[in-house]
Amino acid sequence: MILVVSHLHEPSVNGVVRGLEARGAPWARVNTEEFPLFRAGRIVLDGAEPYGLIETDRGRVDTRAVSAVWMRRAARPAVPRGFRPKDKGFIVDEASAFLHGFLDLVGGVFVNPREAERRARKVPQLALARRCGFTVPRTLVTNDAQAVRAFVAEAAGPVVFKPLSGVTSGGADFARALEQRFGEAVEVEPESAQATGTAELVFSQILTPERAAQLDALRYAPVIFQDYVEKAFDVRITYVAGRIFACRIHSQEAGDTAVDFRRMALRPRVEDVRHALFDPPAALAEGIDAFMRAAGLVFGCLDFVETPDGDFVFLEVNPSGQWLWIEQLTGAPITAALVDALCA
Ligand SMILES: Nc1ncnc2c1ncn2[C@@H]1O[C@H](COP(=O)(O)OP(=O)(O)OP(=O)(O)O)[C@@H](O)[C@H]1O
Ligand SMILES: [Mg+2]
């Protein structure tokens, strides 16, 4: 039994599930926003081997029957309208503790192991990348404007800034979806700005003199500053259990995508930005494999800059990054590789 732990709106789940179906692999899907309000679960310690049960669309899943878990962007549980924030917080914490306790009882493969996913934060991953032999841009994370001015004074070229937490747009309204799905009298609170699609993607930007004049705003939130790396291409690596799909994104062919390739998402047609698979040089492939093993990650989307000299500079790994657009534009069989990893 392969257990998918995600939420109702995660676009990559359907393809993976179709892949599992095609292999005849038994699977079930837990949408985390549905527990506990719409789904019953239990964890039983009664003297014998402990186990957990949880309801899904495909029947009740028993931890003892699960051979692999694919965790993909869990959402917070739905909470009925009208609960006080304090009570809502209690529900969220208890539901999360239950799900973790449930998953703690599962043996087998986790994509990704939860501890590895938690550890894959911006700062430690830059440190690990450096230890694995990658070039990493000179970086400062701070809320201290004075420190930034000193960092800029030392820079050989432009400096880029970007958020530390990497807010991404959600686009999902779980409340409406849950009401439609369960047709219940329970009205659920929209979960968060992220869940209702009002969160914004904050792009990497060059620190121009006009923006540098606003550095006092740093007191409200720390920010990452980095030497801007001149690019021939942005490179997106999708790593799946030892397999590497390397894609060059021709982001320098137009002004809008030059600094941050993700701005292509604002275009009417993403496919106008050229994407091309390439064979990564052996040293890059070996470095990525060593990095991912050291990070304990089975799956991840890594961003590199390929410089005009053909060097690769590490920017980040996102352990639950998107890959569907790469698969659609290049034909890289990423979903199939993930299905392989889950069925192994
Ligand atoms: N130091 C840099 N030099 C050149 N370009 C950069 C640099 N840092 C970021 N970028 C550009 O901005 C993009 C996003 O940056 P990065 O992946 O580091 O941040 P993020 O906000 O965490 O992204 P994600 O949403 O993928 O987690 C990069 O893929 C690249 O195109
Ligand atoms: Mg990125």
What does this structure look like?
This protein is of the alpha+beta class and 344 residues long. The protein has two domains: 2-111, Rossmann fold; 117-137 and 229-343, 2-Layer Sandwich (D-amino Acid Aminotransferase, Chain A, domain 1). Helix content is 29%, strand content 23%. The protein is built from ten helices and 16 strands. The strands form four sheets. It has a five-stranded antiparallel β-sheet with strand order 14-13-12-15-16. Strand 3 and strand 4 (51-56) form a beta hairpin. Helix 1 (13-23) crosses helix 10. The chain is globular. The chain starts with a strand and ends with a helix. It binds adenosine-5'-triphosphate and magnesium ion.
Encode the helix/strand succession as letters.
EHEEEEEHEHHEHEHEHEEEEHEEHH
Helix content: 25-40%
CATH homologous superfamily designation of the largest domain: ATP-grasp fold, B domain
**Strand segment tally:** 16
Gyration radius from CA atoms, angstroms: 22 Å
**Structural class determined from secondary elements:** alpha+beta
CATH architectural grouping of the largest domain? 2-Layer Sandwich
Largest sheet: 5 strands, antiparallel
**CATH class designation of the largest domain:** Alpha Beta
The number of domains: 2
Mean pLDDT: 92
List descriptors.
2 domains; 344 residues; 23% strand; Rossmann fold; D-amino Acid Aminotransferase, Chain A, domain 1; binds adenosine-5'-triphosphate; 5-stranded antiparallel β-sheet; binds magnesium ion; alpha+beta
